[in-house]
Amino acid sequence: MFTFPLVYSFTYYSFTKIKKIMNEEIKLMKGNEAIAHAAIRCGCDGYFGYPITPQSEVLETLALEKPWETTGMVVLQAESEVAAINMVYGGAGTGKKVMTSSSSPGISLKQEGISYLAGSELPSLIVNIVRGGPGLGTIQPSQADYFQTVKGGGHGDYRLIALAPASVQEMADFVGLGFDLAFKYNNPVMILSDGIIGQMMEKVVLPPFRPRMTEEEITEKCPWAAVGKPAGRKRNVITSLELDASLMEQNNHRFQKKYRLIEENEVRYEEIECEDAEYLLIAFGSSARICQKSVEIARSHGIKLGLLRPITLWPFPSKIINRYADKVKAMLSVELNAGQMVEDVRLAVNGKVKVEHYGRLGGIVFTPDEIVGAVEKMRNEE
Amino acid sequence: MKNEEVRMTTKDIIKPENLVYQKPEIMNDVPMHYCPGCSHGVVHKLVAEVIEEMGMQDKTVGIAPVGCAVFAYNYLDIDWEEAAHGRAPALATAVKRLRPDRLVFTYQGDGDLAAIGTAETVHACNRGESIAIIFINNGIYGMTGGQMAPTTLEGMKTATCPYGRDVKLNGYPLKITNILKELEGTRYITRQSVHTAAAVRKAKKAIRKAFENSMEDKGTSVVEIVSTCASGWKLDPVQANEWMEKNMFPAYPLGDLKNVE
Ligand SMILES: Cc1ncc(C[n+]2csc(CCOP(=O)(O)OP(=O)(O)O)c2C)c(N)n1
Predict the structure, then answer these.
(1) What are B220's strand-pairing partners?
(2) Which of A46, A286, B25, B236 could form a disulfide with A196 if both were Cys (CB 3.0 to 4.6 A apart)?
(3) Complex confidence, ipTM
(4) Is there a single domain that holds both residue A339 and residue A192?
(5) A301 within domain boundaries
């Protein structure tokens, strides 16, 4: 009597599971390609870009996929990164879901537009596949644009929501998440990745297709959009200009209030083997992937090492890091730069425990053993 | 003209059937910040009239520049986006690509269009974006207090070339529309002015044509308006008009530069 439903549910379960996997379309691709596919699938209206290594596959993949024939998404190679980010501004100002991507030198050029996007409170997505700098630097991966991303970059008191993917899967997932956050807060969002995650191939389950926003949805979500003024509504003006300083101060207070709200609601991080950790690595993106292996190696040597991975670099997971400062003996901020995020870790810890930095520069990547070595050194110095 | 022909009482004048002209409704009832004798105000009015006559208020997105016309959005009752200095054609490109059924125009000064925004201008024109570009060429940077523009004439004095533009030092006046007409993406390139009633009528026709080209997806149209900047030129409005005719027109001759039918 009772076996039938069990068998039924079992076969039903495995059938749906297989179907689910089939629907999920597990693919093998580069991080940059995943960004492009995810953009098409999450209902992006327009992409504007300019070639630069190591991110050109985003534009190349979109050009190959021709989404203008399927979803109607616009894809355009601009004459420069300056033009591309201003196209994003133009498109976002009409309530459309638009994005751009580049790598460090190109992101420097985009800073003008990013500041204007923040000042005009336009939802938009910018992807930075970081390479080593300064200057033309190298095409090898780096995390040296951390300061630029979370401390400003462009002029004025503004914040970007910064997401740091650590896998090709997260490259795909954060496109949709990035747009959702951008439209939730009317703010530009940056995916801060690097040449490792952009170029490496991994299994990825692409997000399901979401249709592009309809005009009705745009009117509802973006009543401020400049789309043509119908009779009966006030004209919509997209601008960051306010010459009256007292009103400009009010605008700034409004931005700051929004930023506090984001800090309250949108902090994301991952804890790996942190439970009993005596030492804690703090690392994001590709560094966090390498650190995962370091944790494994250290634990096999009997060192209780954990890893805290900030997923949002701004808002920064300061609270949780502060809590771990009461539990661990020391922290090591592991970054592909000369010590940038370590400043935020130290601010979070506020002197409670020792916080050190370990980094490689200019496009050189550390090995998991190197990091374990740095942990052991820190341990011996106690 | 004999006097009896125009003998009308005030009562007659205000009768609706005797109305010959009124302010376009799209022009907002606010004082303009433009100096006396400046061409910007007249061109704003023409743009408003054309949008109104085409019945396009609900379909128009204007892109304002950085320059004296930065506040264009205060004067015309349409939806606007205010661009960073020189980037208006990039914004307009995206708006038109994402919303092809909209009338999209930029309104830019010579510094905005032909110095800091040269790349955006040339490439939008070269792609043949179906946008209209209204280009105010007053040979000077008005907004920032009268510095040299790319279009400043040889020998002309400005705050940053107080002894007159020296071409050895600063290069030659940039005839940007002459370059734009060579680009295959451009459809209609014209140079107009608004210093006389007749010129105003012609300029309006040109703006109308440019706007119609945008709606008919015919590629890029550029309407250059050779303009006065009485304050920047340190002249009174009448002198400014005379100076423009004498000095600007020979360097920037009026007329159509390109009109692909
Ligand atoms: C990036 C940047 N550089 C410089 C300025 C300062 N600026 C404002 S308007 C302007 C020149 C405008 O001249 P033009 O485009 O000829 O227009 P006009 O004021 O004469 O109408 C400059 C240099 C700015 N706002 N942004």
Answers:
(1) B186
(2) A286
(3) 0.94
(4) no
(5) yes
* Number of the ligand 1 atom closest to the C-alpha atom of B149: 16
Using a 10 angstrom Cβ sphere, with 0-12 exposed, 13-18 middle and 19 or more buried, the burial of residue A373 is: middle
Q: Would B173 be classed as within a structural domain? A: yes
Amino acid present at B148: M
Of A76, A229, A237, Cβ closest to residue B82: A237
Burial of A52 (0-12, 13-18, 19+ CB in 10 A): buried
B147 lines ligand 1 (CB under 6 A): no
Write the CB contacts of B110 (distance below 8 Å, at least 6 apart in sequence).
B135, B136, B137, B138, B139, B140, B149, B150, B151, B176
Closest alpha carbon to A358 in A345, A346, A343, A370: A370
**A38 in the same domain as A161:** yes
Q: Are residues A311 and A170 in the same domain?
A: no
Of A46, A228, A241, Cβ closest to residue B98 = A46
Q: Which of B74, B77, B99 to mutate to test the interface with A (most CBs of A within 10 A)?
A: B99
Domain carrying residue A15: 6-215
The domain that contains A280 carries what CATH number?
Answer: 3.40.50.920
Q: Decide if A288 is inside a domain.
A: yes
Q: Chain B residues with CB inside 8 Å of A109's CB?
A: none
Encode chain B (261 residues) as per-residue pLDDT tens digits.
Answer: 455 566 788 888 888 888 888 899 999 999 999 999 999 999 999 999 999 999 999 999 999 999 999 999 999 999 999 999 999 999 999 999 999 999 999 999 999 999 999 999 999 999 999 999 999 999 999 999 999 999 999 999 999 999 999 999 999 999 999 999 999 999 999 999 999 999 999 999 999 999 999 999 999 999 999 999 999 999 999 999 999 999 999 999 999 999 998
Q: Tokens representing A186? A: 């009317």
Distance from CA of A109 to the nearest CA of B (A): 13
In a domain, B8, yes or no: no
Both A201 and A279 in one domain: the answer is: no
Same domain, A30 and A160: yes
- Shortest distance between the Cα of A54 and any Cα of chain B, in A, equals 24
Q: Give CA–CA dist A317/A344, Å, rounded.
A: 9
Q: How many helices (H) and strands (E) does chain B have?
A: 12, 9
Q: How many domains does chain B have?
A: 1
Whole-angstrom distance, CA of residue A47 vs CA of residue A84: 9
CATH code (residue A28): 3.40.50.970
Amino acid A328 reads: V
Residue B28 lies in a domain: no
**Of A67, A25, A24, nearest to A47 (Cα)?**
A67
Question: Are A273 and A193 in the same domain?
Answer: no
Pairing verdict, β B147-148 and B140-141: antiparallel
Residue A336 DSSP symbol: S
Best probe residue, ligand 1, of B33, B40, B110, B112 (max atoms within 8 Å of C-beta): B112
The verdict on residue A261 lying in a domain is no
Task: Give the domain range for residue B173.
Answer: 34-259
| Cβ pair B104, B56 in contact under 8 A | no
Q: By three-state DSSP, how is residue B182 classified? A: coil
Q: Is residue B15 part of a domain?
A: no
Phi and psi torsions of A128, nearest 5°: -115, 110
